[in-house]
Write a structure and sequence with these properties.
With 138 residues, the protein is mainly alpha-helical. The chain has a single domain, classed as Cytochrome c-like domain (Cytochrome Bc1 Complex, Chain D, domain 2). Helix content is 47%, strand content 0%. Helix 3 crosses helix 6 and helix 5 crosses helix 6. The longest helix is centred in the N-terminal third of the chain and has 17 residues. The N and C termini lie far apart (46 Å). The structure holds heme C. Heme C binds next to helix 3, helix 4, helix 5 and helix 6.
Protein backbone atom coordinates (compact mmCIF):
# COMPACT_ATOMS: atom_id res chain seq x y z
CA UNK A 1 0.00 0.00 0.00
CA UNK A 2 2.90 2.34 0.61
CA UNK A 3 3.61 2.79 -3.04
CA UNK A 4 0.01 3.92 -3.56
CA UNK A 5 0.43 6.49 -0.82
CA UNK A 6 3.72 7.84 -2.14
CA UNK A 7 2.22 7.94 -5.62
CA UNK A 8 -0.60 10.08 -4.29
CA UNK A 9 1.78 12.38 -2.46
CA UNK A 10 3.76 12.86 -5.67
CA UNK A 11 0.62 13.61 -7.64
CA UNK A 12 -0.53 16.21 -5.15
CA UNK A 13 2.96 17.75 -5.11
CA UNK A 14 3.04 17.95 -8.90
CA UNK A 15 -0.45 19.43 -8.93
CA UNK A 16 0.45 22.09 -6.38
CA UNK A 17 3.72 22.92 -8.10
CA UNK A 18 2.16 23.43 -11.48
CA UNK A 19 -1.11 25.21 -10.70
CA UNK A 20 -4.50 23.92 -11.72
CA UNK A 21 -4.12 24.05 -15.49
CA UNK A 22 -0.71 22.42 -15.19
CA UNK A 23 1.07 25.51 -16.53
CA UNK A 24 3.54 27.62 -14.60
CA UNK A 25 2.60 31.23 -14.02
CA UNK A 26 5.18 33.89 -14.85
CA UNK A 27 5.68 34.44 -11.11
CA UNK A 28 6.26 30.74 -10.44
CA UNK A 29 8.65 30.52 -13.39
CA UNK A 30 10.75 33.45 -12.15
CA UNK A 31 11.34 31.65 -8.86
CA UNK A 32 12.72 28.49 -10.49
CA UNK A 33 16.43 27.94 -10.23
CA UNK A 34 18.33 26.11 -12.96
CA UNK A 35 19.70 22.99 -11.22
CA UNK A 36 22.04 22.20 -14.12
CA UNK A 37 25.36 24.06 -14.24
CA UNK A 38 26.20 26.05 -17.39
CA UNK A 39 28.89 23.73 -18.74
CA UNK A 40 30.04 22.70 -22.21
CA UNK A 41 28.62 19.25 -21.56
CA UNK A 42 25.17 20.57 -20.72
CA UNK A 43 25.23 22.93 -23.70
CA UNK A 44 26.05 20.06 -26.01
CA UNK A 45 23.28 17.89 -24.54
CA UNK A 46 20.91 20.82 -25.04
CA UNK A 47 22.10 21.18 -28.64
CA UNK A 48 21.24 17.52 -29.38
CA UNK A 49 17.72 17.93 -27.98
CA UNK A 50 17.34 21.21 -29.88
CA UNK A 51 18.34 19.58 -33.17
CA UNK A 52 15.74 16.88 -32.65
CA UNK A 53 12.82 19.09 -31.62
CA UNK A 54 13.20 22.74 -32.44
CA UNK A 55 14.90 23.37 -35.78
CA UNK A 56 11.70 23.15 -37.80
CA UNK A 57 10.69 26.57 -36.51
CA UNK A 58 13.83 28.08 -34.98
CA UNK A 59 16.40 26.94 -37.55
CA UNK A 60 19.48 24.88 -36.67
CA UNK A 61 21.30 28.01 -35.52
CA UNK A 62 18.39 29.29 -33.42
CA UNK A 63 17.58 32.14 -35.77
CA UNK A 64 13.98 31.81 -36.85
CA UNK A 65 13.28 30.43 -40.30
CA UNK A 66 11.29 33.28 -41.74
CA UNK A 67 9.61 31.17 -44.38
CA UNK A 68 8.55 28.40 -41.99
CA UNK A 69 7.08 30.15 -38.98
CA UNK A 70 7.33 33.89 -39.48
CA UNK A 71 7.04 34.83 -35.84
CA UNK A 72 9.27 32.24 -34.18
CA UNK A 73 11.59 34.09 -31.82
CA UNK A 74 15.23 34.55 -32.91
CA UNK A 75 16.75 32.69 -29.97
CA UNK A 76 20.21 34.20 -30.55
CA UNK A 77 18.98 37.69 -29.63
CA UNK A 78 17.96 38.23 -25.98
CA UNK A 79 16.20 41.46 -27.04
CA UNK A 80 13.81 39.41 -29.18
CA UNK A 81 12.45 37.42 -26.22
CA UNK A 82 8.92 38.39 -25.22
CA UNK A 83 8.33 36.11 -22.24
CA UNK A 84 11.29 36.75 -20.03
CA UNK A 85 15.02 36.01 -19.96
CA UNK A 86 15.51 34.31 -16.63
CA UNK A 87 16.31 30.60 -16.71
CA UNK A 88 12.94 29.77 -15.18
CA UNK A 89 11.03 31.86 -17.70
CA UNK A 90 12.81 30.24 -20.64
CA UNK A 91 12.15 26.84 -19.06
CA UNK A 92 8.49 27.80 -18.90
CA UNK A 93 8.34 28.93 -22.55
CA UNK A 94 9.68 25.54 -23.63
CA UNK A 95 7.69 23.41 -21.20
CA UNK A 96 4.35 25.17 -21.53
CA UNK A 97 4.62 26.78 -24.97
CA UNK A 98 4.82 30.46 -25.91
CA UNK A 99 2.54 32.92 -27.66
CA UNK A 100 -0.06 31.50 -30.01
CA UNK A 101 2.09 29.16 -32.10
CA UNK A 102 4.93 27.73 -30.01
CA UNK A 103 3.65 24.34 -28.80
CA UNK A 104 4.19 22.94 -25.33
CA UNK A 105 7.00 20.36 -25.15
CA UNK A 106 5.99 18.92 -21.85
CA UNK A 107 5.09 15.49 -23.20
CA UNK A 108 7.84 15.16 -25.86
CA UNK A 109 10.60 16.25 -23.48
CA UNK A 110 9.47 14.71 -20.25
CA UNK A 111 12.73 14.91 -18.30
CA UNK A 112 13.06 18.23 -16.51
CA UNK A 113 16.84 18.02 -16.80
CA UNK A 114 16.53 17.99 -20.60
CA UNK A 115 14.52 21.22 -20.48
CA UNK A 116 17.29 22.82 -18.41
CA UNK A 117 19.93 21.60 -20.89
CA UNK A 118 17.89 23.40 -23.57
CA UNK A 119 17.87 26.56 -21.44
CA UNK A 120 21.68 26.31 -21.18
CA UNK A 121 22.00 25.73 -24.93
CA UNK A 122 19.87 28.82 -25.62
CA UNK A 123 22.14 30.91 -23.36
CA UNK A 124 25.10 29.70 -25.43
CA UNK A 125 23.54 31.25 -28.55
CA UNK A 126 23.54 34.71 -27.00
CA UNK A 127 26.26 37.32 -27.49
CA UNK A 128 29.15 36.60 -25.08
CA UNK A 129 28.37 39.58 -22.83
CA UNK A 130 24.82 38.28 -22.21
CA UNK A 131 25.88 34.72 -21.37
CA UNK A 132 26.31 33.42 -17.83
CA UNK A 133 29.91 32.42 -16.99
CA UNK A 134 30.85 28.84 -17.85
CA UNK A 135 31.10 26.68 -14.76
CA UNK A 136 33.65 24.05 -15.63
CA UNK A 137 35.08 21.93 -12.88
CA UNK A 138 38.84 21.77 -12.99
C1 LIG B 1 5.98 24.80 -34.37
C2 LIG B 1 7.03 25.78 -34.35
C3 LIG B 1 7.96 25.80 -33.14
C4 LIG B 1 8.70 24.77 -32.61
C5 LIG B 1 8.77 23.32 -33.09
C6 LIG B 1 9.43 25.34 -31.51
N1 LIG B 1 9.13 26.68 -31.37
FE1 LIG B 1 9.87 27.94 -29.97
N2 LIG B 1 8.70 29.43 -30.66
C7 LIG B 1 7.88 29.36 -31.78
C8 LIG B 1 7.18 30.61 -31.93
C9 LIG B 1 6.19 30.93 -33.04
C10 LIG B 1 7.59 31.45 -30.88
C11 LIG B 1 7.12 32.86 -30.58
C12 LIG B 1 5.94 32.78 -29.65
C13 LIG B 1 5.41 34.14 -29.30
O1 LIG B 1 5.91 34.74 -28.32
O2 LIG B 1 4.51 34.58 -29.97
C14 LIG B 1 8.54 30.66 -30.10
C15 LIG B 1 9.14 31.11 -28.94
C16 LIG B 1 10.10 30.41 -28.23
C17 LIG B 1 10.72 30.87 -27.02
C18 LIG B 1 10.30 32.07 -26.23
C19 LIG B 1 11.05 33.30 -26.54
C20 LIG B 1 10.33 34.47 -25.93
O3 LIG B 1 9.68 35.18 -26.67
O4 LIG B 1 10.47 34.72 -24.71
C21 LIG B 1 11.64 29.94 -26.65
C22 LIG B 1 12.58 29.99 -25.44
C23 LIG B 1 11.57 28.88 -27.61
N3 LIG B 1 10.62 29.19 -28.56
C24 LIG B 1 12.34 27.73 -27.57
C25 LIG B 1 12.04 26.59 -28.31
C26 LIG B 1 12.68 25.32 -28.10
C27 LIG B 1 13.81 25.05 -27.12
C28 LIG B 1 12.08 24.43 -28.96
C29 LIG B 1 12.31 22.94 -29.08
C30 LIG B 1 12.17 22.17 -27.87
C31 LIG B 1 11.09 25.17 -29.73
N4 LIG B 1 11.10 26.47 -29.30
C32 LIG B 1 10.30 24.62 -30.71
C33 LIG B 1 7.73 28.26 -32.59
C34 LIG B 1 8.25 26.99 -32.36
Amino acid sequence: MDYVKSGLVLLVAAWTLSGQDGKLSAEEAKKLKNPIAFTKKSISQGRDIFLRNCVGCHGDNGKALIDVVADATDLTDPKAFRDGLSDGEIFRSIRDGAGASMPSFRSQIDKEADLWHLVNFIHSLWPPESQPPLQEKE
